[in-house]
Amino acid sequence: MFRPSFENRLIKGIRAMSSPTRGSIAADTVITIPAFAARGSGVQHFFGTRRLSEELCLEIGAPSPVPRVGDLVASSWLLSVKQVHGTDVLIADRPVMENDRFSAGWDALVTDQPGIMVAVRTADCVPVLMHDPQRSVVAAVHAGWRGAVANIVEKTIAIMGARFGTRPEHLRIGIGPSAGGCCYEVDGPVLEAIDRLGPHAAQAVGERRGSKGYLDLKRLIRQQALAVGVKSEAVFSVNLCTICQEPLFFSYRREGRVVGTMVSAIGLVSGQETLDRASDACQSPRAFVTINRPMMDAHRSGG
Fold first, then answer.
1. Spatial CB neighbours of 199, under 8 Å, sequence gap ≥ 6
2. Residue 162: its pLDDT value, please?
3. How many other CB atoms are there within 10 angstroms of residue 69's CB atom?
């Protein structure tokens, strides 16, 4: 269990949700950051732990009902798609329906639609959540070292700007739990790719021993966000390592295979909730709201 005392020692400014709500997924299964969790922020979000993944009903490439988690209000849909370690972005600018399917691969999702929580799954890669309160747009990004080298965060911000008018200085960004610089040892080809990004990116590599070194992915993502104009005080990191925090997180590097993934998500809160969802989404998979047919746009990047 993620206890508040543990939180206070390890993550200054990060809130570990506690006090489970009766008839819902236990609230201590997620981590939130104050910038997104404050009342009136306009969004709801969470960075999931391994416990959430074990309790959450999530269908990849299809809208899934959103259960109540702690203080979160019921949203209509949780949307997660196939991830391919690329830089393509799915733009959801229309409502979604139960029978919509998204079979291609994307590593970032952007939406301006209340009632949709865009989600990514990670097991050492970095979950990045973004919110533009000026334009009411959110994004969820899956960033491994390949995505970081290909500038997926920069490209997602550029797409938010081109499509919705987002300006980097208006963004708030949450960087979630991932493999940390304490444990994430990478080899020569990865280091060479990082070094090619320039001296600032190379600073994300800590101790080097021969052809290997320790990569701080969260630091690299933060640097890339700041480089395109996001304000330093608007970037928040959950400084927990998925590799060495085994009770909390799955880790591909630690386990040597995909045992499970954490789910992290963000969504706009509508002025009036349209769905009073059943307490357990797994037991009520067809309690859907009737909405209009969507029109989804997939932005294909050249990177």
1. none
2. 97
3. 26
Q: Cα torsion at 152, 153, 154, 158 (round to 10°)?
A: 100
SS3 206: strand
Q: What is the mean pLDDT of residues 211-217?
A: 94
185-186 sheet: strands from edge to edge:
185-186, 212-215, 205-209
What gap in Å lies between CA 286 and CA 282, rounded to an integer?
9
Identify the band that residue 71 occupies on the pLDDT scale cut at 50, 70 and 90: low
Give the number of other Cβ atoms within 10 Å of residue 162's Cβ: 10
pLDDT digits (tens, 9 = 90+) for 99-122: 899 999 999 999 999 989 999 999
Q: Residue 50: which domain range?
A: 4-179+235-269
Domain at 112, CATH number: 3.60.140.10
Q: Is the pLDDT of residue 276 over 80?
A: no
The answer to the question of residue 104 being in a domain is yes
Q: Which of 42-56, 169-183, 234-248 is least confident?
A: 42-56
Please report whether residue 259 resides in a domain. Answer: yes
Separation CA 262–CA 127 (nearest Å): 9
Tell me how far apart the alpha carbons of residues 61 and 118 are, in angstroms, rounded to a whole number: 11
How many residues are given for the chain? 303
| The pLDDT of residue 74 | 57
Q: What is the mean pLDDT of the chain?
A: 80
Please determine, for residue 144, whether its predicted confidence score (pLDDT) is greater than 60: yes
CA atoms within 13 A on the CB side of 147: 28
* The predicted structure's pLDDT at residue 69: 60
3-state secondary structure of 197: coil
Provide the residue type at 63 as one letter.
Answer: P
**What's the domain count of the chain?**
1
Give the pair of three-digit tokens for residue 254: 């630690």
Please state whether the predicted TM-score (pTM) of the whole model is above 0.85: no
223 phi, psi to nearest 5 deg: -60, -40
**217 within some domain:** no
Give domain status of residue 105, yes or no: yes
